[in-house]
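Can anyone check this?
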Amino acid sequence: MARRVIEESGLKDWQRWLVSLQNSEVANTQSRILRSAGLRALEHLDDLTPVRTGRLKGSMSMGDQDNVFKLQAGSRAYVFVGTAVQYAPHVNDGFTQLAGQFVPGYWRGHTFHYDPNHSGGMVLTGKVIPGAHMFEKAMGELESDLPQILEYEFRRLYQKLFS
């Protein structure tokens, strides 16, 4: 059976146009997906982060390379989400106090306030402090959001390409 090649005059131009879009529109779509996913992750972190002073919750951001999580799409596209606050891993993962360690500070009501210059303080008992696991929970929530984000962005790309 002989093979037939159908060539249409505008087909090659349309193909060139699609290839040129590969570098711009597809990259824009990928960027929009990552930004949307990052913003959605921040929304979930805002809901899940425990608040005592508000510093940790207020420090959540997108784009800082020192942030805790890296959302990745493909081999070279990513966005950093989370916080660079030093104690964030302890709040997220939990920790075990070092038994017998003295911590300088003072009590106000039922809350201990660390103060390195205070003469009083407390001695730790070795208690296990559970973590809030807010990053893992936020990423789990984000997984269920991704199909909607992807569908929206792919529909948008389709409309740009074929409308």
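Reply from J.R.: I decoded it. Residues 17-94+131-162 form one domain.
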